Amino acid sequence: MNLDLVATGTAAAVVAAATLRAATPILFASLGGLISELAGCINVALEGVMLVAAFAGVITSAYSTLWFPDAPLWLHPWLGCAAGLLAGTALAGLLAVFHLELGADLIVAGIGLNILAQGLTVLLMAHLTGDKGSTASLASFALPSLRWPGIGAVPVLGVLLNGDEDTGHNVLVYVAMAATGLIAWALRHTVFGLRLRATGENAEAALAAGLPVRRLRYAGLLLSGLLASGGGVFLGMGYLTLFQADMAAGRGYLALAAVFLGGRRPLGTVVAALVFGAASVTAARLGQLAVPAEVVFMIPPLVTIAALVLVKQHQRLATRRRAAAGRAALLSP
């Protein structure tokens, strides 16, 4: 076996595994954003949902040892996960009430909830731990990792499936991949998915056809919050094992960009999330070198802007080609 080829493949597998981990929170949030967008009410509060879910998950897993001292240790991280999912979904439900019941502007309400989540999590963290930066003083839990036995010694594949430290990937990484396929199937092949898309395409026509538009939009926003909460829980109980102030770090906004960069389709959204994950890995690698921090922080947003511009130009060229083909067909004898 060519040692140079194995070394190259192993290095590529390390980068691919790191990209998958970095893309997981963005993937969760972008799938949530896709569902709400297809329902006709894009969830702009994804950033805040991730923050609230991460905070609730970490705090609950840490304090559950005091609340349930006789419970087995494996239960505490799952209690934290459940609390994080509930807290994030509740924030998305609050956005739904503001928009669907009170008539608030979706964008303004979403940004307001993001700001609220940023301030509230820091306030509660300072009250509970005395630290405004992180919950490092609390002994919180991480969700388990799944390791594939027997392949650790297999070149490339072992690194790809079990990571460069041979400890496996966090369980939420696999949940995110499974959710991708499930959502893609449900949106196209289930009655709920077809009704949700119909509501987003033309709410008046859907209402005239007897569809419960408001309930479908509630469902879209709540499902969006549940998925984005998965990304937040992963940040606090998988990617790290603590909560940091503003630890979402713009991932919710990257997820929104991924929805439109992917053409409002599940596969395109996943690819865009992986691109942003790769950009985050690149920024982290450059941060280990003598590269100014300002340049490192610029990489993910620059990649986002460049990708959106390229996709828009491609769409314009495709439209022009179709228009030219149509004119040619009309003028041909």
From TrEMBL:
It is a multi-pass membrane protein. CDD domains: TM_PBP1_transp_TpRbsC_like (cd06580). GO terms for cellular component: plasma membrane. Keywords: Cell membrane, Membrane, Sugar transport, Transmembrane, Transmembrane helix, Transport. InterPro entries: ABC_transp_permease. Its main location: membrane. The keyword Nucleotidyltransferase does not apply. This is Simple sugar transport system permease protein. It comes from Nitrospirillum iridis.
